[in-house]
Amino acid sequence: MRKKVNFHFAFLLVLFLKLASAQNISVNYYSSIDDIYASFEVGDLTYEQYTDLVSLFESKVDINYDNLQRLLIIPGVNSNDIAPLKKKRNEGVIFKNSKQVANVFPNDIELISPFIDIIPKRDLGINGNFRIYTRYNFIAPALSNDPYHSGRLELRWSDFSMDYRFKQQADLELQTTYRNARYRTNDVEIVLGNYDAHLGYGLLVGRKISLSTLERSNSARSYLASPFYGELNGLFASWDLHRKWKLKLAISANKYDKTSQSMAGVAASWNHSQKEQKGIVIYFGKLSSADMDSEKIEQYGASIFGINHFFKNKLQYELAVLNNGSWGGNLILTPSKKTGNIAWKFWVYHPDFIVLYSDGFCDRGYEKYYPRENDFYLKAYQAGELGTDINLKFKPIRKLSINCVTSFFSMPNSLSNGGEIYLSGIYKFNHNDNLRLSYTRNWEGLGISGDTKDKVYIAHRWDIGSSINIRENFYYKWNNYTESNKKEQYWVKSELIYAFYNWLSFGLRLDRNDSNVDDQSIGYWKLTLAPIISDRFSNVKTSISLKKTDSKSEVSINAKVNLRISW
Fold first, then answer.
1. pLDDT tens digit string along 135-189?
2. What angle do CA 27, 73, 454 make, to 5 degrees?
3. N or C terminus: which one in the chain shows less Cβ crowding within 10 Å?
């Protein structure tokens, strides 16, 4: 009896500590790279989130063939949102339009629509698509390191596919950012090159383990032959055996100058039934520099993970142990949909639980660590962190959908804690007219004191027939870091898209951004003109933006071209 009481006490203690906390939810709607950059300007996105989202916006996710895990970097999108899409694809469904995707995607489709492509397969020997994105600023550049160009080439034939992405920025040479060759059937998947995959649920082996190319020389060979910052580089394989067993293998090795890293992991999972799955991961990782013996990091470990279904509820869990005796664990509970779409997530880590090859899949609260400013890094879980994530979706009436997300953490070792609550509603006046309203409250600090951040987001979308689309957005944010340091900022944009023909549209957009703080980069007006040529298998959008910053007399001109051709 005593053990049971202690367990309940520990559970309540963990839950109480969560009700004090702050993971970065930052749910916004991004219809352009300008929107992503604006969120970065106001502090809703870290630099890493900003670059990841820009890369995703440029290359897009093919909803029928790409790895849907890439959508998880979009704030507000979680694994429960993409699970129904995966299920439909496994059943052989090929999505033909955005309406079909919206009927399956449980969250707001506007969160992902700018980041996805829906390209039906054609009856050709080889299918694929080619995309070019380019940006150039004139007079007063709004962004640094311009011009900027990126591209993607994807080919598919039978069970084989190839994906190659590159970029060129400022005076840097052409740089490969992603490349792989993939063979995939119903039972086997083999990927050579970069891959987005994890073993177990990501506590030990994630995808963010490549050496940084940020400090590379301008050698074309160097950029073409080496992996880009943030993507796994090596071999990944998966086998389904006799419907019950699945084996996964990941091997990766990279070297830059005198720094090298390697990783190997193997996972075995067993489907006892449709309601129960169990698995184990064995892992080894090494990171070293020839000039710094003291910076050599070598570790190995194992984790157990599983899924259990009971009373129409789903429980996911993972517990990992490293060779230094440290441990980490997470727990995700998804109750029956009859009570709403709810997910409870709990995680806890030993203070020494620092995993060399993890992407923060479980807690999203990782910190970068650069040993002696070297050219490699690792992502460390926040020491001793306790946290939880709660997601609730329901429809009180037929036309209204409510989404509530809360995320809390507490770090007893540093007395740091915080929390964030996100509440949004979508009201559909009719099929072509809807209004979105969201409010976010963020609190973070030490002990019982802390800083607050609040924001309100209003978005209205009105489709007039099949020719005119009107979108209006209002964003207002206020920060109270201290009583003497208060900052308010707002951002208003209005967009009109007129379709002359099925293949030709024209977009007109007006933005106003301002703040109560005298910041030269914030106060501005922007007018954007964008002709759009699009059919079933091609799309080209050219935009010209005229930007007038309050503190400057000249007008900045920004030109962009986004071209996709599919076959």
1. 887 654 445 556 788 888 999 888 899 988 888 777 766 777 778 899 988 889 9
2. 25
3. N
Distance of CA 300 to the CA centre of its chain: 28
| CB neighbours of residue 216 within 10 Å | 18
Please list, in sequence order, all residues whose beta carbon lies within 8 angstroms of the beta carbon of residue 217, skipping any fewer than 6 positions away: none
CB 442 within 8 Å of CB 478? no
Residue 129 corresponds to which tokens in the numbers above?
């698509």
pLDDT tens-place string over residues 68-108: 878 888 887 877 788 889 888 888 888 888 888 988 888 77
Q: Where are the beta strands (DSSP E) in 197-244?
A: 232-241
Reduced to 3 states, what is the DSSP secondary structure of residue 127?
strand
144 contact partners, CB below 8 Å, separation of at least 6: none
Q: What residues contact 410, with CB distance under 8 A and at least 6 apart? A: 17, 18, 20, 21, 385, 386, 387, 416, 417
DSSP assignments along 418-466, one per residue: EEEEEEEEEEEEETTEEEEEEEEEEEEEETT--EEEEEEEEEEEEEETT
The residue length of the chain stands at 567
Q: Which residue carries 């910041």 as its tokens?
A: 519
pTM given for the model = 0.75
- CA 10 vs. chain centroid, Å, equals 32
Place of tokens 């001109």: 557
Q: Which of 353, 301, 363, 302 is nearest to 326 (CA)?
A: 353
In order, the DSSP letters of 88-108 are HHHTT----SHHHHHHH-SS-
Cα distances (Å, whole numbers) of residue 270 to 36, 280, 389: 41, 9, 27
**Residue whose entry in the numeric block shows the structure tokens 């009859």:** 338
